[in-house]
Amino acid sequence: MRGLAAGILVWVAFGWSAGAHEAARNPRLMDFPATASGGLILPVDLHTHSVFSDGSVWPDIRVQEAKRDGLTAMAVTEHIEYQPHAADIPHPDRNRSFKLASDVAKSDVLIIAGAEITRDMPPGHINAVFITDANALKVDNVEVAIRTANAQGGFLFWNHPYWHRQSPDGIARLNPLQERLIAARLLHGVEVANGEDYSESALRIALDNNLAILGTSDIHGLIDWDFDVANGGHRAVTLVLAPTRTPAAIRDTLRAGRTVAWFKQTLIGRPAHVEEVVRASLSLEAGDVVEKSRVLAIKLKNASPVRYTLRLKAPQAFYNMGDVVVVPPYGEVALQVTGGVTPQTLQLDFEVLNSITAPKQTLSLTLKPKAG
Ligand SMILES: [Zn+2]
Ligand SMILES: [Zn+2]
Prior knowledge:
single chain, alpha+beta, TIM Barrel, Immunoglobulin-like, four-stranded antiparallel β-sheet, 23% helix, binds zinc ion
């Protein structure tokens, strides 16, 4: 309570009235601000199931969940080969699930046609999205299915490559078939996060082979239950750093590998891409010097749905907090900085603890108040 009272005094003293805040935003909505260069950060889920393969819900529920999460796009990716509900729900037309989802989505969520090519290792499970006809992938030879999906303009990626049922030690390793597919540009991305799982060996493969870094829900049950949304959880998604909000721009951006996976609040991607997301999210505002001192009050604001955990680096230090700062989604933190810095000299060097830019590596960056 003492801390709270002190906080209120600081706000009043510097004229930052609580009443000036926007109404609290729904933290569930994945609404990312534009980047400094005007680019978009689009949350997409490229891996979902319904009763038309081994999922537990009708496709319209998938669409409603996507709307609640504020997804820009969702791919419908039923298993081609694995059809455990076939006795109850015969599935002769493999485009049916996509059609049902598209009919209810209207313009709220882009529905992307896809399929999960579901094979033993190698090559394991491969999602093809932005395809035009899933029925054409029902063929015996997996390489024919992969080439057909590519011929339809598909974006293809390796699903859960670390999966312990196909890699018992939980480590992802490329096999010769996949190496051939990558060399021939028939495989374009890899899941580093799928549902509840993260794989640094998959991230290593993505970085070493110039593949898009992806996070997906691979949802079969309900998003709210599997990801504990009521308690601040979120589905794993891919943030696509696209110039515009169109299917063509999303596909081209995926192919260019301009992506960040967002998984359990952690941003996983190449350093420049993670930095784009962090800089779009966070801003620093200098306030006034605390009366009769050289301690500077500042605010750290977060315009994104990500919960950031930052560690301040030497030689800077806070007056009212330790080195680790949590900045809540669509929220802000009031801080005081020691050492006699001024609004003109203010800069903070942070390690973004909720980031992974390579196995066991995090992003570091310097924040300064926006000019003007
Ligand atoms: Zn799978
Ligand atoms: Zn799946």
